[in-house]
Amino acid sequence: MFRYNFIYELKGLLRSKWIQLLSVILLLLFGFSVLNGHKKVEQRQRNIALAKSEVQENDQMMVQLLDSVENGMTVSATRWTIPTSPMVVGNAHPRVAAMEVQPMAFISTGQADIFTHYVKPTVSGDDFALNFTEMTSPVQLLFGSFDLAFVIVYLLPLIIIAFSYNVFSAEKESGSLKLLASQPISIKNWILQKLMLRFMWLAILVISMLIVVFLLSGINPFQNTTSFLQLVGLALGYMLFWFSLVFLVNLWVGSSARNAVSLLGLWVLFVLLIPSVLNQLGSSLYPMPSRTLMINEMRSLKAEVTKKQDEILDNFLRDHPEYAINDKSQSRGFYHRYMASQKLVKEELAPVISAYEDQLQKQQNWVGRFKWISPAIITQESLNKMAGTAYEDYENYRKQVVIFAGEWREHLLPFLYNNTVFTKADVANLPAFKYKNDSGPSVASLAIVLIALMLFGSGFVISRKHAVHNVLN
Fold first, then answer.
1. How many domains does one find in the chain?
2. Within a domain: residue 344?
3. 96-125 pLDDT, tens digit each
4. Which end of the chain is more exposed for a tag (fewer CB within 10 A), N or C?
5. Global pTM value
């Protein structure tokens, strides 16, 4: 019976042009989304390359100035721009701390429209208040980006609904269902076979289209097999979830019109409503402290410590005798007092910054605890992690930059407090930032498949009498 069902369903799909139409739709959607994703990645790479190129040019000028000074030549630069001072090096010649693009970054924009991808920490800057955000189009932030993740999470379920919403009801409304019910197969098995055949054809089309658009965009999916298989597994698992909902609706609802409305309602629920509700509840339960108050407190503390910088510097040198070896009272300048006071400001503001970050983390944990309610959240989050554009990736990047800012400062402070001149030989020893991606493998596809199998099982267990009633009426 399965063989005849397969042949009958295939002929019906070919005659109705569904397979041909789906092929064109998927090729257009996947092709445009991958192209759009590549454009965003290329722009990000250009910005980072431009920043690094600017640093290289500045370094060349710095080396030339240092060489001229060391050879006793007269330079035309002003005194406060000559890099023999470690503070000039630390502020005018910072390193680029860039979040490098991951191989699969084009599949999901994720948080890339909100956070910047490189900063230049300075030695006298506030690393605790480093700005990792950038101004973007509010319209784009509202509607998101048309990337591969958007196609999979938002549009692919709509295609599945249009492809399968009337699998059972169309036979019933055409009058052929009672004839089919006389065959030696249960109604549930018959519907399941028809849906699984459609799932198989759609899966073949999705995998084929992904391979085609990857190859056309210059990426060989067979060279990056692990990432490509993760993407395919996630897409197939998400598709299986929506086919399981179609299975339940076809068993329980009835007419084609009601099936369509019910499935669209479920799409709104899982894709739009649940993510929005979880986000709003997280913001309400764990409200963020006022950033304005935090900035005001920061300014007040800076003004207060500025009045007693000499006392702060004496305490700082007492706590760091390695810096006081060559210290002379007459050699103390603005930066000696300023850098010591900055360390105190950082320590005083640590609880304020920690409270701000703790609330943000609580919001993320809230969404993380309840994300299993909606496979759309799981899929979007997994695609973001696969692309290296998830919130966790940017938080990891921020922490790495803060650590590097401390390393940059600590590298130059001995020059300042020991009154040591910065030389051309010291340029090669300047710290460099290297981003480390700590994203691990995701088990989201397995979790979504388990949810889908549970839904299929519930359809078999609960709807036995209801399905028979639909056949006879």
1. 1
2. no
3. 999 999 888 999 998 888 888 899 988 877
4. C
5. 0.84
